[in-house]
Every structure is written in structure tokens, then in C-alpha cells.
Amino acid sequence: MPLSGGGVTASVRPDEGRHHRESTASVRLKAQRLRRALDTDRLEDAVKIAADVAAELRSSAAAELSPKAYYDVYLSVCAELRLLEMYVMESARRGAPVRELYERVQETPLVLPRLYLLVTAGSVYVKSMQAPPKDVLRDLVEMCAGVQHPQRGLFLRAYLSQMMKDKLPHAAAVENGEEDAAKETGAVAGGTVQDSIDFVLRNFTEMNRLWVRMQHDCSPREMELREKERLELRLLVGSNIATLSRLVGSDLALYRGKVLHAILDQIVSCNDAIAQEYLADCVAQVFPDEFQLATLDAFMQMCGKLKKGVKMRTILVSIIDRLRRFSASSADAANTARDAHAFDVFRSEMPGVMRRQGTSLPLTDRLRIYSSLMSFALESEPERFEHVDNVLGFCVADMDKFLGGEHPKKDGISPRTAVRLSSASEGKDRSYSALSAEDERLAVNVLTMLLEAFGSVGSVLQLENYVVLQRFLSYDKQRALAAQLLMSAKGYTPCIEDEGTLEKLFKYVAPLVQDRRVDERGMSEKEGVEFERFDVTSLTHHHEYLLALIPQSHMSAVPGGKPEGGGTAAADDVQVSERYTIEEMATFQEDQELVAKIVYLCDDTDVERALSLYASLRQELLHGGPRRVPITLPSLILASLRLALRCQAEEKVEVVEDVLGFAGECVSLIPDSHALLALRLQLHVAATGASLGKHAWRFVYDNLSEAFVLFEQHITAAREQHTALELMIVSLGQTQRSLDGEAFAALSRRAVKHATQALTRSDQCVLLCLCAQLFDVEHAGLARECVDRARRAAVACMNAAERVLLLLDVSRTAVAVHEAGVCDVTEENRLADTLGKIRDILAGRAAKSSPLGKLAAARYQRLVRHLKSCSKVFEGLDYSRL
Amino acid sequence: MFIDLGAEVVVANTAQTRSSFSSVATAGRGAELSRPFPEKRDAVQSLRGEPAFLGRKMVLVLAIGDFHIPYRSPTLAQRFKTLLMPGKIQFVLCTGNLCSAEVDQYLRSISPDVHIVTGDMDSAPYPAKAVVNVGSLGFGICHGHQIMPSGTTSGIESLRREMGVDVLITGHTHKLAVWQGKEGGLYVNPGSATGAYSTTKTEVEPPSFVLMDVQGSKVVTYSYVLDGEVCCPVILCSFPFRFLLVLDGELTLPSVYSCIKTGRSACRKRSV
């Protein structure tokens, strides 16, 4: 039985080394005499000498020894006594009565040596089966009470249990499950398992008492030293529990009925922190998993009665982790754990344990326990969300107790009321101190554990305490966690069916939508951005004079949906880019894209319901303000357009208008700083309207004209203007058939005008080429005019290389217009002239020598080859000139 | 022929297909069809054969585009992500509409040589058109929303003439298509990689992309279409146009031929 290391230093017991040497030498000296006596078969002398040897354990030198040194002496004494034992055993086998010896040793005058010899003799007595073991055991365990000195008594009893360990009645028989046989033979031999257990329990109780007393006898000054020494001796006591485990074998009834009860009673009643902590951990480690599950309630109740300050973390983490490993080991094991309702036991007993410990169990330890409990809940019954929620509830209740310094609650808050607590305190000014870094890490760990295990937003939304716990974290952690929640939706299975769930989700991801930390009061920090179209920003210049009549205070409180103007928004952008680093901007973008994907979590099976859901979603997204809306809103807009297309497919014509109206409204909420994006979306709304059918056609004109307004008012950069105009012309072409003649004429005229006014010649030319293809045969004149203007723009271009490329574009357009049968470009040799111009430039020396010129020439050749291949179409063309 | 992208791609191949293919080597671009389709027997073998082209280095060109993440689709299908493992593909030609930096990064992780053109919803400054030379072929990429009248074959053919490329890759329609033009040239539309809907159609095509194996002046295209979660039919088409095979675990030979005759892919269409 090795003792753990870390012996007491010589400075504490200055003479220990000397005493130790003296004792050992003395034992060695006497042992020589003992051997001689045994060799010459002088048993009487041998007993006397053996008593003398054992007496070393009570000598004045031994009294000065630390447990470690004492143990050393104890071991050498034991070795010598073993010689005596073997001698007696040998003679007993030859038929000599042991009883004689058993009685003779009792004549030894000193108590301690007498008892050592008695135990030695008793062990032979039991082994030789000359007396009923039961009686001998009872006799011995009672006699040992004669030594009450803690250290001596403890070692004496350790000797007793050591000697008897392998001689206890029927330990093996029961282990093999032959209970009947055990009873039968047990009756004959005078001892049953019950007796053995009684014996071990009694000895264990006494040992534990002595162990605990070791500390009580000393002054407070020595307390720390004694604690250390006691820890070194813990294995002596703990080995009894291992012996019990062997005796009990697989007999659950026996364990539950007798053994566990006695051990737990002893643990509670000894009222000593070190003993409680060690022994409870022993129980949790030693007995089999099935036993632990079956008697978890008793164990947890015991935990609830332990002394304040006992390291509950060690005990509880050890039992919870053990059960988690067990239930993870196999499907059968998982079922066993489920049938035992292990989690329910934890849930009902845990608050009691925590209440009992109070502030002596710090928050960090509690969170560690809950973290274990969470992994147990997720491992054993992952489909029981309420279990996970309960664990979160525990965390919340404890955080509330530990951090809510200003209004400490009298009693603990049960996890079920935790949510109520948060909602009740919403109005009150209840402030919490921040979590320490380690506590926060643990809390985040608890939450991410379940995110990983669930892998679905829908399941997480069913947890009530998740969001309450989240509020205790710092803003960065909250944001990271919210992003992780959204990322855990791998397949984007729709899981939001009503507004309530959506609202709940936004409580979860609020840190992504708001710049500020979401505190315990929840969403009360919400910036006042209700969706409201009836505001000053919707005024056009026709009614701008009304602004003068509106009080100034209202003017500044413009809702966040749409900032006052492009100028301020641009200024905002500048500020934003100054305030954040590139990495922060990238993280922000990624986070917001996650928010944008929330729309894919919304269930859209029913169109009408989906639309109202989308309306709520828009409301929530608008809280994000002008920085977030351009990233988060487009997905919603395009999702609603998809909804419109589905309405059409399902022939729900009446809803189509609502959906398109909704989409158009959403587009108008995109801040003017992102006018090009708004324009793109506006064109998509128009395109959708066009592909839906006559009833939706009014949306086409409205949205196209809106796009033109955006273009004219907010798109200023040349490159953006070009992109925008290109998109507008293409959309106009696409939606042409859904516009009535006048509307198309108005819009196309405007497009041509803008194209003509483009900044550079090349922009003009390219855009006019696009415009030329807008028109059908009825507007052949307009098409021809566009081609002409494009050619003029191309010709006016300064750079020869650019000029030739633009002319090639023009001639390609002319060919396309001609092939489409809109107008005849061969009239008045228009095409031939253009081609002639190209040829002239290409024939020049500069063009011939440049690689670019060669590319242009190749392109020209391809065009000519094409023209030649469809000579029937281009009848008026003079091929001889090509 | 077999392109192992590291996952359960349906495999078609055979020596026979290879020989019929290599017989065209002299025909050059835009060659007339001399032997339109492999014999029926060959097709049987083509389903269970040895990987061809193992002896030479494959040059794989991926045509992919119209992701619309996060605007119209939350994410690229996991099946596609496992198919498109980094290091297998030499060129990525993207038709645009990525809509987020996330996709851009993803494409650049697949291959070192990535070319992206701008779509109608891209705010990143990609060019409108791009030309990439692979082997002895010129590949042109253009999103295609700029083509007027939109979606017409003549517009796309005129664009190929203008760009002077052999293979023109366009997107925008969200409909997978591979065809050869009247004047030669191969036209590829990889469809939408995420199966995003198009605002101009009430039908939604499944997610798809096209992989091209380029050898000298020859191209074999492989179209990957994700149909549900289960199988990924492979449509083979050689350029110059030799054969078209639609293969997947379920298809039997007659349907292979019916696909060839009608020229339609066997993929199911779904409504919006």
C-alpha cells in the first residue's frame, strides 16, 4: 500500500531522521532474534519477541515520526510479523490448534503490540478455518477499539484490513453469482458476505473517525501541516471502499440496501471536508457504472449534505463525466442511462447542492460542473431540448446570484424561473458586473457545445435560457456566438414559421444587428427605427416646401432606414472606414451576410404567411441601420421576388401585387449611399413584374422610372453611371413588351438621352449601340439614328485604336439590327462606309505594325466572313468593296 | 473518360470512346461530324471501363458562375464543395454574380488561375469580358446580361465573333447548356452553381457547373448537375462535336439515346 509522495520536510520535525533511523534499526535488531526463535521452534519466545517488534510502533521515537516515516517503520514491522504468521500457519496446517496461540498473544502486556499479534493470530485462525471467521472478525474489530491514538489506531486497523482482505468469507462466491451456494457454505463456515461487509464497514467507519481526528487534536498553527499529512494517509481509508466494491460484486440490491447507505452516512456524519471530498470521489470512481446510475439520487442527496467548502467541482465533475463516458460507450449503455433518468436526478438535486454550498463554491467551479453536465445532457439524450435548457438555466441562475451584486436575492433562483427573472427585470435598473475571462470562456464553451451538437437553428430557438445566458457575455463574444449560431445552420432547412419565432431568433442574433452589447435588459436598447414610410424622406421636391413647417426636432429624428441624403451617407462611409480596420470590416461583412441568409430559414410554403413573415423580417433588419441594411436587405428583396414568381405559378394573382409592392418598398429602404445596388434591385423588381403577366405590368414602369430617378439623382461616378445605364437599357429591352407604347417611348428616349450625354466618346458609343437594339421595326428610325449617333461618337474619338474598335462595335450593332429586320443598314451605304473607315485605319502603317491593330484586323475579317456567309440578308451591301 | 474529382462522380469511359475521339484529331476545329455517335455496344462499355487519359496530363477548366450568395442562395451545395477539391483544376472561368467576397475566396482556393467577369449583381470591380488561352484554344468569358436581345443565340454567336474565341462561356440564364454553333465554336453555359432562380423565369434549374478537359484543340465537357441530394448526372460532350452522353446510375441505354436525339438533358426541372 504505497503512500503518496510529498513527505514532510526535516525542518518541521527536526529529529525525525534520527528517530526514524533508531526505530528501523531497533526493528531490524529484534527481527534477528525473532528469526532465531522461530528457527529453533521456540514459539513462546517468538511471540514475546514479536510483541517487542510491534512495540516499536508505539515507542517514544515512533511518536515523533511523520505519517510517511511511521509508514516505513510499519512496513518493516509487518514484514517481521509475516514471518510469525507463516510459521504459525505452517504448524496449523500440520494440525496444531491456533486457538492456543490466539489466547497466548493476549497475554502481551502492552495494548498495541497485543493487538498486532492478535490480528496476526486471528488471520491464521480464520484462514485455517478452525474458528468461525464471523466471530473472529467481530472480536478483532471490537478489540481494535482499544487503541484510540489516531495515527497508531489508523495503522493498526489498516493492518487488520490488510490481513483480512483475502480471507473474508465468500467474497469470491458472490462475485461468481452463486448466492445460494454462498449462503449454504456460509452457514457452515460461520460467515456470510453480509458479515464481511459488516466487518469492513465497521472497520472503515472507525478508520475514518481516527483519520478525521488526526486533525482535531492539533493546534491551528499546525493545521496546514496536518492536512497535508492526512492527505498522505487517505489511501489507507479508501482501500476499504475498494474492498467493499469487491465484496459487493454485481449485487445491486446489496449495494443499494446496505453498503452505499452506510458509506454515505459515514461521509455525511464525519463532517470533515477532506474526508468528504476524498471519500465521495472514491465512491464515484470505485463502483460500477450501472450502480452509479441506479443510486444517483442517493449520491446526489449526500452531496447536498456535505460541508460547506468541500470541493464539489471534483466530486460532481467526476461522477458526471463518468456517466457521460458510460452513456457514450454503447447504445445499450445510453438506453440504461435514459431509463435511469439520470439527468432528472441531476436537475432536481443540483440546486440543493448549490444552495448548500453558497458562496463557498465559486462561479468558475459551478460553470465547470455545468459544462460537464451539458456534455452529459447532449451525449445521453440529445433530443431532449429541455435538458439542455435546464443546464443553461442553472448557469443563468448562478450568474444572476454572483454577478447581480446590487439586488441579491434571498434564495436561489430555480432554473425554470430564470427567464421570468430576465423579463421581469427588464424594466428595472438591475446591473450586473462582468464575467471574469475564465468564467466567460466556460459560458461560451457551454453554449458552443450545444450549437455544435444541435447543428440546427430551429432546435436552438426552442431553448429559453440561451438568450438570457448570452446576455451575460461581452459584446465581442455575443457577436461571435450569434455568428456561430447562424453558421450552424448548415443545410438552411426552413425552421421559422411564425413571427414569434422570428422575433426570438433576432433576440439571439441581436448582437449582429446592433452595435451595442445586448445587456440583461434585452432589446430595450433598440434604436427607434420602426419601419414608417410616412416620413420626411419620402418627400419629393414638389412638396419640399412643407419641410419648413416641420419642427426642427422632428427633422433630426429621421428613422435609420434611410439617411437624409447621399452626401451624409458618403460621409458616414468615410467615418466608418476610418473607425474600423480592414479585418474588422471583413468580419462585419461576413457577419452581415450571415444575417442576410436568415431569410432562407423562413418557411415559405404558404405564400401569404411567408409575405407577412418577410414583413417582420424587414422590420428586424431595419434595426441594423444604414451600415447593415445594404448587405442584409437584398436577399430579402430577391426572396420576395421569388415568392412573386411562385404566386404566379400557383395562380395566386391577387397576392402578386402585394409581394411586388413589398419588394419595391424594400428597395426604397436601401440607403442612397448604395444607389447602384438599389438600382440593380429595382431593375430586378421590374424584370419580375414583366415576366409575371399583365396584372403585374404596372410595376414594370414604376420600378423602371424609379431606377431612372436613382440614376439621375444619386449615381455620380462615371464608371457607376456607365454600369447603371447599361443595366437600365438592357432591362428596358427585356421588359419592352410589358410596357405600353408611350411609356416605352418615354423611357427609351430618356435612355438615349443619357447615353448621348455620357462622359466619354467611348461610353457614348457603346451605350448608343445598346440603345439601337432596343427598337423594333416600328421605330426603325430611332434605331437608325442611334447607330448613326454611335458612329459619330466613334469617329469623334481621338485615339485611332479606340476609334477602330468602336467602329467595329458600331458595325456589329448595325449588322445585328439589320439581321433582326429592324432597319436596312445597307441603305445609303451606311454599313459599307463604316466598314470602309475601319479598313482605312487598319491599312495605316501604325495599325499594321501594332499587335492591337492585328487583333482589330482579325476581328474585322471575322465580321466580313460573316457578312459574306449571309450575303442573302445583306443584299444591298457592296461586297466588292470589302 | 474519367475525371476523378475525389468524390463519387458517375464514371463513363472506355477505350472505344477514346479511339473514336482521337480519330477526330485531324479534323480540327468546327469539323463536320464524320461518325456522329458511338455504337450502342461502345456506350455499354463506356459505363464500365478503365479510366482513359491516365497516361497524360489533364488540363481541367472549370466553368462556373451565378452563385448569388447570399442574395438568392445561402450556400454552395456540400456535394459540389467536395467535388471541387483544391489542386485538381487548372483554370477556373467564372461567369460572375458571385455577390460576396466569400465566393471569390472560395474560387481562388480551388485553383491558382482564376478568371472572373462581372455579373449584373456584382459590385466587385471585375472586367466585363475576359479571354484565356488554354492549350491551343481561346476561351472567352462574359456574363451575358449585356447581350441584346437577351438570351438569343444570334447575340451570343455575334459575341463570340467579336471576341474571337473558340469557346465562349456565358451565364445569366441559369440554364445549363453546351452547344456547337453553326459557324463552329463551342458555347458553354454552366448554369447557376447554387441553383439560384432567375427573375425572368418561373422555373428553377438545379445547381450545375461544367468541367472541360482540354487537350490541344480538343475539349470534352462534363456537366455536373445536382439533382436533389442523391446523384449527379454527368453529361459528356466532345468538341469538335462527336457525341453526347447523359449518364447516371439510373439511366439505361435507351434513355441515353433519347437524350442525344432530343438534345435535352435528363435533369428534372423544378418550379420556383
Structural summary, described in words:
- The complex is a heterodimer of chains A (882) and B (272).
- Chain A has 882 residues and is mainly α.
- Among the domains of chain A are: 123 residues, Methane Monooxygenase Hydroxylase, Chain G, domain 1 (Up-down Bundle); 146 residues; 135 residues, no CATH class; 137 residues, Vacuolar protein sorting-associated protein 35, helical subcomplex Vps35-C (Serine Threonine Protein Phosphatase 5, Tetratricopeptide repeat, Alpha Horseshoe).
- The longest helix of chain A is centred in the first third of the chain and has 27 residues.
- Chain B is α/β, with parallel strands linked by helices and 272 residues long.
- Chain B has a single domain, classed as 4-Layer Sandwich (Purple Acid Phosphatase, chain A, domain 2).
- Helix content of chain B is 19%, strand content 25%.
- Chain B is built from six helices and 14 strands.
- In chain B, the strands form three sheets. In chain B, strands 3-2-1-10-11-12-13 form a seven-stranded mixed sheet. In chain B, strands 4-5-6-8-7 form a five-stranded mixed sheet, with helices on one face.
- The N and C termini of chain B lie far apart (35 Å).
- The interface between A and B is large, with 51 and 34 residues.
Main beta sheet of chain B, described? Answer: 7 strands, mixed
- Look at the helices and sheets of chain B and give the structural class: alpha/beta
Shape of chain A: elongated
How many strand elements of chain B? 14
Which architecture of chain B would the CATH scheme give at its second level?
Answer: 4-Layer Sandwich
The percent range for strand residues of chain B is 25-35%
| Largest sheet, spatial ordering of strands of chain B | 3-2-1-10-11-12-13
Helix content of chain B: 10-25%
Regarding quaternary structure, how should these chains be classified? Answer: heterodimer
Radius of gyration of chain B (Å): 17 Å
CATH domain class of chain B = Alpha Beta
Low-confidence stretches of chain A: 1-11, 171-188, 406-429, 521-533, 556-574
| Chain-averaged pLDDT of chain B | 69
The rounded distance between the terminal residues' Cα atoms of chain B is 35 Å
Major sheet characteristics of chain A: none
CATH H-level superfamily of chain B: Metallo-dependent phosphatases
The tally of helices of chain A reads: 44
Q: If you average the pLDDT of chain A, what whole number results? A: 83
